[in-house]
Each structure stands twice: as structure tokens, then as C-alpha cells.
Amino acid sequence: MTFSRVALVGLAVLLPATPLAAQPASDRFEIAPPEGVFADKRQEATLEAQVLLVRAGHSPGVIDGYPGGNTSRALRAFQRAQGLEVTGSADSATMEALRKAAADAPLLERYTIEAASSEFSTPADGMAEQAETGRVGYGSLGEKLAEQFGMSEGLLRALNPGGLSQGTEIIVVAADMGDLPAVERVEIDGEDNEVRAYDADGTLVASFPATVGSDEFPSPSGTMEVAALAPEANYTFDPSDQEWGGDETLVIPAGPNNPIGGIWIDLGKDGYGIHGSPDPALIGKTSSHGCVRLTNWDARTLMNAVSPGTVVAFQ
Fold it and tell me: Which superfamily, per CATH, for 185-314?
């Protein structure tokens, strides 16, 4: 399938980091992190909160151990769902509720790297080169593993100073949202850069950080429906209906580093959709050209829970 008029990241408008409330050092890692993992601004308390938030259904985006806007957003969503005071901070009441909701399990786990299913090469720079070379796969084993576990490559390498290679046992975050129940309604909140998923009873089952339009290219308003799902989507740029991006029609193959992360939830109207991203660290911190951008892993989690006809409401 080919799709056009899909949003691309615009100019970065970085959000200020919001520190978490002070927390005692966690004793729930079980696997001791290597020395130096928390040597800079990375925090044990933040890492614990991020892992538990994923398990509770509220994605902080990239798990990296650093406080910031996406983690605070996830904390606010969890607090609202639990009827707690909405602070966006990992205060003691919130952490107690998170630990209860997310089950008592280690925050880190061991994983043995299997044989690579494909070779790695540096992704092409720019849409024209991507279309010409088809280089939109993972650039490295580190990038592939980081996306597999929803964490930053920086944290992955800090946890594994001995390196990453086939057959090696490594340490990764134990953060798995699992399969969501069937989602009947999705809400897109542009003001909070948030996507919310609800089941048939109207219960909030998950929330995700998102990049939602911009002043120049706003997302649509009103209600749409999921029209089609493309888990291995290519990207077609058609200059006849775009006001940016050059004057040449381009077809870029599917892959995690194509402009939509290779994942597309079509909303059936004028090329709008919910999709992945080649740069997960920028989710919720930049503008787009109208569509809704998630991390690749969050986009897949949502895709697996919706179906054609699922209501999508823009707020």
C-alpha cells in the first residue's frame, strides 16, 4: 500500500524537563546496574517510574532514565486514571499506586542477543536518497535492540558497557505494556500531545505521547474512523498535494527509518493517519505536518488493538 500526505517532523520546539519528586534509591532492580549508569542526570527514580508506567499502560515514550515532558505527561495520565492528585511528579502516593498497578517484578532483565536477521547500514539521509537507495532499515544492532525494548540507545549502552554482539547476554529494561484489549475509541489531544485509547466500556486502557500537527499544518478536527492498517507501510511523497518537500514524486520502501517508521493507521480522510517515527526521541517535542506521530513501538501497540471502524476523535 502507498500513502501520501503523511506528517513529517518540523522544527523542534523542545519542552523543558520537569523533574520528578525526590525518591529513595530503588531496591527493585534486582540486577545491579553497572557503575556509572546514574552518574549524570539520569535518575534511578525516573527509570523506575518510566518502566512501571509502561506496564500500567501509560507510555513515557523513550525509556532513558531522564526526567522530562513525556514522563510527566504519562504520570499525569496515570494519576487521572487512578483518581490521584494530578501533579506530573512521581510523589510517594503515585509511586505506591504504580507499584501496585504494575505488579512486583524486577525493573531490569537479562536478554541474549540472537543472530541478526538482516545486515545493518546507515539509513539514507533525506527522502530522495531513501527512495533511491532503499536504505531505511536499522543503522546498527544497538538501534534495533533499543527499539525492541522501548529504550534509548544511550541507556542500553550504559547498561552494557561490554558491548553488544550476537550471543551476548545483556541487561535491558523489563518494560512491556503487553497486548491491549480491543480499542473502540481513540482520542487525539493536540494540546497535551497525547493519544488516549478506550475500550468498549469507555475505560482508558492506554495513553501515549504524540506529535500532533503544528500551527502551519494543523491536525484535522472532529471525528474520523480507522480505515486501514499497514504494519509494513511504505511512504509516497506526492508533490502535487504538498506545500513542502520538493517537486519530485518519491516512493520510499517500508522500514523503521522511513518517514512514517514503516507503520501506518489510515484514517480514511485526505491522507491523514497515525504512524511511527524514525526518531522516537523527538515525539511530543516537535511539530508535524498534520498527522499523528508516535514511537514505532507505541504505534504498533495501538495498531494491534484497533480495527477498521474504530472511532478516532481529534480534540
Answer: L,D-transpeptidase catalytic domain-like (2.40.440.10)
